[in-house]
Amino acid sequence: MSTFESTVSINKPTNTVYQFLADMNNHQQLMPDDISDWSSTVDEARFTIRNMIKLALKIEERTPDTAIRIIPAEKPPFDLELKWILSGNENYTEVHFTIAADLNMMMKMVASGPLQKLADDETANLLSILN
Hints:
The chain is α+β, with helices and mostly antiparallel strands. The chain has two helices and seven strands. It has helices at about 15-20, 105-130; strands spanning about 1-10, 35-40, 45-50, 55-65, 65-70, 80-90, 95-100. InterPro entries: START-like_dom_sf.
């Protein structure tokens, strides 16, 4: 598995950050500009990463104020898991976002840059929205 990670600190209570991330409808705001055809519910989102792949993701696990685990809702081109880990208190939240992808060598060459950019963009956008 290849992992792509990004971490930010947000000056908001952990509960506030968790409530935002626990709703897949909010994740559209976190996505980079090369995302299109977005549709979502509280538990699931479908979208296209321009010139790459179509994805359907769902929240598999919610641990209140601590973690959100997102997995594919339909068979993707490669196995994938997104995980948001939160720690902090009523004034501050440390947010750690990880994308784990099972990439073969060819896919790793093509997808590593965009997946790291996705991780970085999502945490930067979260910081921008919530700070």
